[in-house]
Structures are given as C-alpha cells and as structure tokens.
Design brief:
It is a single chain. With 340 residues, the chain is α/β, with parallel strands linked by helices. The protein is built from 15 helices and five strands. It has three domains: 13-74; 88-140, no CATH class; 157-338, 2-Layer Sandwich (Nucleotidyltransferase, domain 5). Strands 3-2-1-4-5 form a five-stranded mixed β-sheet, with helices on both faces. A hairpin with a 4-residue loop joins β2 and β3 (228-233). It is globular and about 70 Å long.
Length: 340
C-alpha cells in the first residue's frame, strides 16, 4: 500500500464536492470526506486525527479510490445476488428519458441526478435499484457526470479569461503579511427547505412549510487558513453591513486583507469602496457570472443540507439551530476554488 505521494491523481475536488452535495449514505459521505481532505493536502494520518477515524480505515478508503472506479470506491455490494434487470424496452425508454431534460419528463428540476433517476425507475418501471447500479445504468444510457460551464449572456469570452487570470494572479501572490478572505451572504427563512432524502417507497412524506418572509441574514467569511467568521445582519443586506463586516474581519485577522467577493450591490457600493481606500483591505471582485468560484458557497451548501427538511416556526429557534449547524461545517480549501 503506497502511503506517499498522491494516491488518487485522477480524482478532482470538484467531482468529490458535487457527489457530496447529492449523497445521503453516511458511510459514503465519510469516504468522500476523506478523499476531499486528502485532495486538500491533509495526510491520511491528519484526516484520521481531524475526524476521529482509525488510521488504517482512512488508508483503506483512499486505497479504494486508487484501485477502483469512482462509483465502485463509494458503494459496497448490497447483496450477493444479481439485482432485477430492466427489460430491453424499459431500458430503451429510460435511456431516451435521460437524454432529455428532466422538465420534459415532468420533473421541476434542470438536470438529472442519480437520486432522481432512481426514483424515476421506481415510479415508471416499478424497479428499485441501488444508487450504485442506477449510476451504472446511466452510463450505459450514454449520459455522463459533468458540470456546465458558466457563460453569462452579456459577458465577452476574452474579458472572462482576463478577469479569471487576474483573479488567480492576485490570489496566488505570495505575501506572508496578507490574509486572503472570501465573503458571501446567506439567508434562511422560517419554515422548511425541502431536500431529497431517503423515505419508504410506499409513503409520501410531508414537512410543514410557511408563507412567512421572516428569516435571518448572515454575512460569512472564510480565510485561507480555513477559519470561518459569521455576522448576523439586522435586516436586509446593505452597504453599511458590508463595512461593519470588513471592520470585524480586520479586528479579528489584521488590517492587511485581500477580500474576495461577488458584485452584489451591497459589496460594490461607493461607501464600501471608499472604506477600502485606506488602502486596506484590498477588494477583489469575482468575474461576472463566476460567483460559484467563491468557496464560502460550499459552507452555505453544508448549512442548507444540515437544516433541510426541518420546520422552524420561530426566529429564535432558527437562529439557535443555525449557530449549532455552523459549528459542524467542514470548510473547503480556498485556493482549490480560486486557483483551479
């Protein structure tokens, strides 16, 4: 078993991150988390120490990614017998459906996931397959796992490339006295956010929702050292809130900051830019249409996942649960987003 060097050179952080966003199996989540930590630069021993997992178990998980296809590394064989097969006609219809938009099949989503494909097989073919087997069928149907490239309708390709190069140049500049911080906003309303989860096939689960617009707004910051700072906003996001958050970041981490942020109006306001003319902090805006490069988005994804399918009827109840869930966030690697 090789224990030095990159054990999983063909696996990308983005592939792991997107699978995590779509995964519900606790064992698979652990394997993906170990792979993400390894790709972020942690040693197997460091991963085990961080999460309290046995050292040998982490090595075994990483060996799976080294020795097997991605899906085979994730899932264990769930039964010794062969799963029931679709008929040729059923598979042909399944393949045709997958090669169309889910909206054409009557689903209110923009793209197929293995969860949706699994549920489609159950509802249309009365055949229940494991996620691993469904993913194999999807490959046989000649669809592949990929991420669309962002292409803002009003953006020029040369401008996007120039902005992207400038972003990498500034973020990657070596400066021991400077700290890189990404910031972004988050809002959670009372009620419940409905998310995919595992439920009995013959039951239709329900979760209370609310028509109220009451909720909580936060600004969040993620440093290159994976430290997180959150500020609750009393009301809507406005320029004064941004300035107060920048002041909080400087009080916590020092004045010399490179702050990476999107072009929301509360970030680009004149008062915000005037504050940054001191000359610190330095503000670096993400290219138009590239807000998903912000690694703070991954923190929000984990937070939404933790709060999903839970009903919150009061602001105080929601606030308490948010603060609790924040302590469980596993911060992503900042440079893997910005200097990909």
């Amino acid at each position: 078993m090789a224990k030095d060097g990159n054990k999983i050179p063909d696996l990308s952080v983005e592939r792991v991150r997107e699978q995590l966003a779509d995964e519900r199996d606790p064992k698979v989540i652990k394997r993906l988390t170990a792979a993400r930590g390894y790709l972020a630069g942690l040693s197997p021993d460091g991963i085990g120490e961080k999460y309290g997992w046995p050292r040998q178990t982490v090595y075994n998980w990483l060996d799976r990614f080294e020795e097997r296809d991605f899906e085979d590394a994730l899932y264990d064989d769930e039964w010794s017998g062969r799963p029931p097969e679709l008929s040729d006609e059923q598979f042909h219809q399944f393949a045709e459906t997958l090669n169309q938009s889910p909206e054409e099949a009557g689903y209110d989503v923009a793209a197929w996931s293995s969860i949706l494909a699994q549920q489609h097989l159950i509802s249309e073919c009365d055949v229940a397959h494991s996620r691993r087997h469904v993913q194999r069928l999807m490959k046989e149907a000649e669809v592949s796992w990929k991420k669309p490239r962002p292409e803002p309708a009003s953006a020029d390709e040369e401008d996007l490339e120039r902005d992207d190069d400038e972003l990498k140049k500034k973020v990657g500049r070596q400066d021991e006295d400077r700290l890189v911080v990404t910031i972004d906003q988050f809002r959670k309303s009372i009620g419940a956010d409905l998310r995919y989860a595992w439920f009995p096939i013959d039951e239709r689960p329900t979760v209370n929702v609310s028509a109220s617009r009451d909720g909580i707004n936060f600004l969040g910051g993620l440093t290159e050292d994976s430290e997180i700072l959150f500020l609750e906003c009393a009301g809507s996001f406005i320029k004064e809130t941004t300035v107060r958050f920048l002041q909080s970041l400087q009080a916590r981490f020092g004045e010399k900051l490179l702050v990476v942020l999107d072009k929301g109006f509360y970030f680009t306001a004149k008062k915000v830019k005037e504050f940054a003319e001191k000359p610190n902090p330095e503000l670096l805006y993400l290219p138009t249409g590239m807000a998903k490069l912000n690694p703070t988005e991954e923190c929000w994804r984990q937070l939404r996942s933790a709060l999903g399918n839970q009903y919150f009827g009061e602001i105080d109840e929601l606030r308490s649960e948010i603060r609790s869930a924040m302590t469980e966030i596993n911060p992503p690697g900042l440079y893997q987003y910005l200097c990909r």
